[in-house]
Amino acid sequence: MSRFQIAIDGPAGAGKSTVARLVAKQLGLTYVDTGAMYRGIAWRALKENISISHEDALSALAKETQFQLENEGIRINGQWLNEELRTPQVSQLASAIAKMAKVRQALVSKQQEIARYQNVVMDGRDIGTHVLPHANIKVFLTASIEKRAHRRFLELQAKGLSVNEKTLQEEIRKRDENDRKRKHSPLRKAEDAILIDTTEQSIPEVVEKILELCRTKV
Ligand code: C5P
């Protein structure tokens, strides 16, 4: 049976997960946060002391890990994880692990399997180009780096964490560069994706734009 699929890609901090979660809720679709899957492998690698140089061990970890994607977050091997996946250490390691072809293959096949049985809103870096090339709707969300860093800064501040905005900006810039320049499935806009720049747009405006796109497709 053919499924309804919305693919949302873009650089770090462009608002993908917030927008994707809201669109999924509105339409009653399953939200799949693929970044959380890469983060989950990074988190497990740190816990189990697996070095970044052991690509085979990391890809075995990716194959054997069970993910349950829910609108509010993710369970990894049954354990509910949220803030643990958002630390700078996990972010950096996830971005390094995401360069590895074998890890990507393992996670991409799990992502495709989820989309085989459910209607999904999936966000990441390679969803429209690689994971769901036939998605009904493809969106590429972007925003200026200053705006993306500022949003992340406000998010962390609201959680009571004190962070330097310039440091955040540098961290995001590095992750973007890693994602854009990597050999396997680099971050890029699919040719048939709609570009939405969120620098000057609110989350509800972007969500409405995507819902409007969906209305024209059904
Ligand atoms: O989206 P998020 O920032 O949580 O993703 C964490 C990292 O996982 C990204 O920096 C990126 O390197 C990687 N990633 C990826 N492909 C995806 C989703 C995330 O390479 N589909």
UniProtKB/TrEMBL annotation:
Q: InterPro entries recorded for this chain?
A: Cytidylate_kin (IPR003136), Cytidylate_kinase_dom (IPR011994), P-loop_NTPase (IPR027417)
- Can you give the residue ranges of the Cytidylate kinase domain? 6-215
Q: Name one GO biological process term.
A: nucleobase-containing small molecule interconversion
- Broad class of the protein's primary localization: cytoplasm
Q: Where does ATP bind?
A: G10, P11, A12, G13, A14, G15, K16, S17, T18
Q: Which family does it belong to?
A: Belongs to the cytidylate kinase family. Type 1 subfamily.
Which PANTHER family is this protein grouped with? Answer: CYTIDYLATE KINASE (PTHR21299:SF2), CYTIDYLATE KINASE/PANTOATE-BETA-ALANINE LIGASE (PTHR21299)
Q: What is this protein called?
A: Cytidylate kinase
Organism field:
Thermoflavimicrobium daqui
User: Which lineage ranks, top first, belong to the organism behind this chain?
Assistant: Bacteria, Bacillati, Bacillota, Bacilli, Bacillales
